[in-house]
Write a structure and sequence with these properties.
Helix content: 25-40%
Oligomer: single chain
Distance between the termini: 21 Å
CATH topology of the largest domain: Aspartate Aminotransferase, domain 2
Largest sheet: 7 strands, mixed
Number of domains: 2
Strand content: 15-25%
Shape: globular
CATH class of the largest domain: Alpha Beta
Strand order of the largest sheet: 2-10-9-8-5-3-4
CATH superfamily of the largest domain: Type I PLP-dependent aspartate aminotransferase-like (Major domain)
CATH architecture of the largest domain: 3-Layer(aba) Sandwich
Number of strands: 15
């Protein structure tokens, strides 16, 4: 069964082989070498310049766990932008930690208007942090970060916390350019790795402020995680096999290894940009296919996410489509939550290709014809 769900996604055999390496001591020279292999290309994944003061790190936990970690480093008043299930989760995690959360919520598939954000910051603040999901996996909706960064120019004390779970390795993060203070992601989506570890990036100002705060956690203390990674001494025993897989995948992406056959040789930032272009092409082809069946994406075209397409089903029987594709050895997803039966989702992410997508869509044509 080939996974075209919104994550986890397909993992290349060569990456799976990295998980089978013999264990090493997490305080060994070999572990330090893994940190060294990871940090350079991971900085590229977050869009950091070589002289960036921001810091990347890895932790053996889920993306949701790092949502919690990020929130441990900020003050009590949080503004949460909500347009889907995972942005709602970010707010719920903050509330579970006892934060005072103000929500700006719009229907699933839409994007919060930056003007409303500016108004909330001006009239309901001061806030200590703002949370947003850059790519809502539940709806295939991408929230542009640049307009939010512009709004935050007038509120320099608000820390900008961003979930990039289904954006990283599918589209540019541009962490410093977008004034992000903490970005977090699992690795099971566009990074095309098995779930089990999380990656993150934090700004100097976030770390400096977090160091001064009471952080009521040990394993999810962001300062302990980030400083431990920087010192190449993880706070606790890490999931070492996953570090091997992450190191190899980051190196492969940076060397252009994961690009389609015949692609011009590229490496470094150009290789990451080329990967983003592959994802953009798959998104465009999926939208074109949907239109050919009289269907459309849930979000407006300008807000369509690069790694996940959420398609409004119209009169199409979604459960039958999903089941029919399973018979063809393809796995896609029904809609999420209230969108179940009304939409379906195709995860064109990670190391998938346009050729593979065409094969999936051809199979979907057959199933729809039968239906």
């Amino acid at each position: 069964m080939t996974l075209w769900i919104p994550g986890p996604t397909e993992v290349r055999p060569s990456i799976l082989a990295e998980l089978a390496r013999p264990p090493i001591g997490h305080r060994s020279a070999g572990m330090k070498d893994l940190h060294h292999r990871i940090d350079g290309p991971l900085a590229l994944a977050f869009g950091l310049a070589p002289d960036s003061p921001s810091t990347v790190a890895v932790h053996s936990a889920s993306g949701t766990a790092i949502m919690e970690a990020a929130l441990h480093g900020v003050g009590e008043r949080v503004l949460s932008l909500i347009n889907g299930a995972f942005s709602k989760r970010f707010a719920a995690v903050a509330e579970a930690l006892g934060k005072e959360v103000t929500r700006i919520e719009v229907p699933m598939g839409q994007v919060v208007d930056p003007m409303k954000v500016a108004q909330a910051l001006d009239t309901k603040g001061p806030f200590d942090a703002m949370t947003v999901v850059s790519s809502e996996t539940s709806t295939g909706t991408a929230t542009p970060l640049a307009p939010l960064a512009k709004v935050l120019e007038n509120h320099p004390n608000v820390r900008f916390l961003v979930d990039v779970v289904s954006m990283i390795a599918a589209g540019p993060i541009d962490f410093d350019t977008h004034r992000v203070d903490f970005a977090l992601a699992g690795v099971q989506k566009a990074l095309a790795l098995p779930p089990g570890i999380a990656v993150m990036c934090c700004s100097e100002r976030y770390l400096a402020e977090a160091q001064k705060r009471n952080r009521p956690s040990w394993y999810l203390d962001p300062v302990r995680i980030i400083e431990g990674h920087a010192a190449q001494k993880t706070p606790a025993t890490p999931a070492v096999p996953h570090y091997y897989a992450l190191a190899q995948q980051l190196e492969d992406i940076s060397a252009g290894v994961t690009l389609p056959k015949g692609h011009a040789p590229v490496e470094g930032p150009a290789a990451w940009q080329a990967r983003y272009e592959v994802h953009s092409a798959m998104r465009a082809r999926t939208a074109e296919w949907a239109e050919g069946h009289g269907l459309s994406l849930l979000p407006a075209p300008e807000f369509a996410a690069p790694a996940v397409s959420c398609i409004q089903a119209g009169k199409l029987n979604v459960a039958a489509l999903v089941a029919g594709l399973a018979e063809e050895d393809y796995s896609i997803s029904n809609g999420y939550g209230d969108l179940k039966g009304k939409t379906f989702r195709i995860g064109h992410m990670g190391d998938h290709s346009l050729q593979g997508l065409e094969e999936l869509l051809t199979a979907a044509d057959k199933v729809i014809a039968r239906l």
